[in-house]
Amino acid sequence: MSELYFQSIAEHAAGLAAKKYSAVDLTKAVIARTKAVEGRVQAFNSFDEADALAQAAESDARRAAGQARGALDGIPIGLKDVIAVTGQPLTASSKMLANFVSPYDGTVTVKLKQAGAVLWGRLNCDEFAMGSSTENSAFHPTGNPWDPTRVPGGSSGGSAAALAAGEATATLGSDTGGSIRQPAAFCGVVGLKPTYGLVSRYGLIAFASSLDQIGPFARTVEDAAIVLGAIAGHDPLDSTSFKADVPDYRAELGARQGPWRLGIPKEYFGAGLDPEIGAAVEKAIAFYRAQGCEIKEVSLPHTQYCLDTYYIIATAEASSNLARYDGIRYGHRAKNAKDVVDLYFQSRAEGFGAEVKRRIILGTYVLSSGYYDAYYLRAQKVRTLIRQDFLNAYRDVDALLTPTSPIPAFKIGEKTDPLALYLCDIYTIGVNLAGLPGISVPCGFTKSGLPIGMQLIGQPFNEAGLLAIAQAYEKAHEWSARHPNL
Ligand code: GLN
Hints:
Layout: H1 9-17, H2 23-41, E1 44-46, H3 49-64, E2 76-80, H4 107-114, E3 118-123, H5 157-165, E4 170-175, H6 181-187, E5 190-193, E6 213-218, H7 221-231, H8 249-255, E7 261-265, H9 275-290, E8 294-298, H10 306-321, H11 340-351, H12 354-367, H13 372-393, E9 399-403, H14 418-422, H15 429-434, E10 438-445, E11 451-457, H16 463-475
Parallel strand pairs: 2-3, 2-4, 7-8, 7-9
Antiparallel strand pairs: 1-3, 4-6, 5-6, 5-10, 9-11, 10-11
Helix pairs in contact: 2-3, 5-6, 7-16, 8-16, 10-12, 10-13
Bound molecules: glutamine (GLN).
Glutamine binds next to loops.
């Protein structure tokens, strides 16, 4: 039996139900592990041991009274530091919110609490979720548990690294252009970005509201199904949340069997794809073919416009969403301002980091009169074409299979040009522009021992089908049983 801190939710649900150990034992194991490795990983912005142990004790009391609430009761789950938890710091890894304590719970937080989860820690990320390496955090970089001199990916790098390192049993991240799937790939764990509208964004610090979705990082596809089942569903507090029935994703896993029709988008296998990643994904394709799946090459002809479209729409929305940080009601406030206008200028100049400023400037530009039609409006039209590409492909196939990232985890400090970082997103951002669900599943290692992820992209609101396809691969491979040697 592997250590408690490396076991899955499903294993713990059984272990806790059989009273082999308590939620307090499990939480203590995760806390001890965190203290042992956090010096090298630095996945957390903050954590509150006493609070986590109190939650675990409540879970044990419920269980003793015969009132255990299900698979998540007593499970330590970490949240990216952009998701609100009452009474806990909420920083978005920004100086702007360095001293902010959330006065309320986000909807996913409420749902996890209702499921009995032990909320454990605030996880590092790129500032306001803008980045692909977690190096844009105003506080500190996070190390990849497989090689702490390398990045864990981003923006939800702390969520991916904490899970891979055994510092939590599952975590939540947010994904605007790949921020769950890419770090999942870099850290060798499962990461699911749900269909836009499936999970409430209430209590998520907004980056680009038409693209943002919260989703789980998990050790296994089954665990991702368990967490998704707990956090999904309509929420009157989020006007973009969809009124769809939430199936029992875990139960559906067993009910859905292949073979499936899988599309391979030819635009996702071109120049820039690391050959070792390409070879690993080809092997995964061969696996599905051997299982009787129909493998079809498909085309998503507007793929070449995804990056430009994303960096217009995401920055436009960010410039609007971040206008609220003016130092007046909350957030960083400059000390020596001459007047109120100067206070805005200085507070924002001091509070935001370079990447956030770059995006606010770009977003303000594309929305300004005279440029709105040429950039923003045009990008919205191209976005419709990108979504249509995917929907056309789904006439012939059930899901698409691609690499998650063109490259494996790179060295901290290696990529200094913002454009080089933006290029990391080429396989993930189309999914956000089209509002689709996507999952990254471990699919091997490079020769130097770095994890590789493959991405499966599903049809809108068919997370159940997507998870089943992913699990078919996972069950036949032992990647998720491997853990980093920290
Ligand atoms: N890397 C992308 C960006 O910097 C995506 C980030 C995200 O999904 N939050 O915008």
